[in-house]
Amino acid sequence: MNIKAPRGTQDLLPGYTEKWQYVEKVLTDLCRRYDYKEIRTPIFEHTELFQRGVGDSTDIVQKEMYTFTDRGDRSITLRPEGTASVVRAFVENKMFGSANQPTKLFYFGPMFRYERPQQGRMRQFVQFGVEALGSDDPAIDAEVISLAMEAYQQLGLRSLKLVINSLGDTESRTNHRQALIDHFKPVKEELCEDCQLRLEQNPMRILDCKKDREHPAMLAAPSILDYLNEDSMAYFEKVKQYLDAMGIAYVVDKNLVRGLDYYNHTAFEIMSEAEGFGAITTLSGGGRYNGLVQDLGGPETPGIGFAFSIERLLMALEAEGVGLPIDEALDCYIISMGEETNIEAVRLTYALRKAGIQVDKDYLDKKFKAQFKAADRKRAKYVIVIGEDELTRQIVTVKQMDTGEQTEIAFKDIVDYLQEQLQGGK
Ligand code: HAM
């Protein structure tokens, strides 16, 4: 039987995983600078968490969740996103009680959505995300947005577009909701089946519909920005002022509504404008979710965050032709010939690795020439040769591969010698 990986998943192989490691390192370091701490939550949760957190009327909950009943008869779901889990952990672990507020968290991890796979849309993908809980200062909205933008910029992306909107507070949303119902009701029958349902459950979601995008009623739909009350308007103005202060360019898009139910006030997405990026241009999305902690059983606590997938980030880097500075060369390869020398080679490999040097050797009993070829293929910076003659004299021959220079070094000095050479950047 020829078993393949499930549709919408991928194997990350050596040569590619180095890119992931590099990206994760840059992002972790970025979070350290912004003082966000890492949180790791389970990959599966009780289904109810996402029904309540992400929202019953969203596509994610209605069509895309990997849900199953476990052997204990519980309904379990592979997490489709990270925010609901982080908020659950925040409440369950009473993180709101810590003196350090706001609670600033980041995470990496696989997410699962049963979507139609295409380039940039996977059924298992890895999200990097941040959540800041406990502050409704618009400056933290700007901080979260700046972190997202800097993540991309630091990795070398240039063709970025930041799109922001305000979804307002509850009062503004209620008024807007009514306006949408009044607006779409007369043409209900002309809308797609999903939108007819959305009109009852969550009319704002209609604005996000791909099928009805060209419908005249869609183009003339009332905008949330016209329904923001004074407080919501002032909040949005402040966020924009802070972004201006940091010199972060943005475009206001009154139709940006986001696909999850928990949002209010600030909503944003970052798009790639790189040519050849593909049909899906959204790189990341986020926003404020002031009611979510309470909805999930915690005290009234505001929150804001964003997430993006590493898959789309790497696609964007490729589309922009950005190479990552990954050193694929091996520090040292040890070549040995003969039974006796093998023992010395094993001892030396172990000693050098213990000293922090990256070392490999032959394990296929290759001839001398083939061992050199292997060292070349691995782009070894140094090759150490131990033959019968070297063994008798208790020395090794060290060859610096880029210059071809050869030196004889005593067994006892080789660790120090190589360490010095490598630190010298040779
Ligand atoms: P989202 O817009 O559903 O928001 O997803 C955020 C990002 O995850 C997307 O912009 C994209 O980079 C990536 N993504 C989503 N679905 C896929 C997929 N099928 N394949 C590849 N990448 C994908 C959220 O998940 C919210 N939790 C973001 C958030 C955090 N809001 C506040 N805090």
Q: How does this structure look, described?
A:
Strand 3 (66-69) and strand 4 form a beta hairpin. 37% of the residues lie in helices and 21% in strands. The protein starts with 16 loop residues before the first helix and ends with a helix. The protein has two domains: 17-169 and 229-319, BirA Bifunctional Protein, domain 2, CATH 3.30.930.10; 332-424, Anticodon-binding domain (Rossmann fold, 3-Layer(aba) Sandwich), CATH 3.40.50. The longest helix has 18 residues, at 17-34. The chain has an eight-stranded mixed sheet, sandwiched between helices. By secondary structure, the protein is of the alpha+beta class. Residues 81-83, 113, 115, 120-122, 125, 127, 129, 131, 259-260, 282-287, 305-309, 311-312 line the site of histidyl-adenosine monophosphate.
Features:
5-stranded mixed β-sheet, Rossmann fold, 8-stranded mixed β-sheet, binds histidyl-adenosine monophosphate, alpha+beta, 16 strands, 426 residues, single chain
Query: What is the 3D shape?
Result: elongated
Number of helices: 15
Uncertain runs with pLDDT below 50, 5 residues or more?
Answer: none
The CATH level-2 architecture of the largest domain is identified as: 2-Layer Sandwich
Q: Describe the biggest sheet?
A: 8 strands, mixed
Which class best fits the helix and strand makeup? Answer: alpha+beta
End-to-end Cα distance, whole Å, is: 50 Å
- Quote the beta fraction: 15-25%
Mean pLDDT: 95
Instruction: Give the helix level as a range of percent.
Output: 25-40%
Oligomer: single chain
Q: If you consult CATH, what is the topology of the largest domain?
A: BirA Bifunctional Protein, domain 2
Which radius of gyration do the C-alpha atoms yield?
28 Å
Total count of domains: 2
CATH class of the largest domain: Alpha Beta
Ligand names: histidyl-adenosine monophosphate
Instruction: Strand order, main sheet: write it out.
Output: 1-5-6-11-10-9-7-8
- Give the strand tally: 16
CATH homologous superfamily caption of the largest domain? Bira Bifunctional Protein, Domain 2
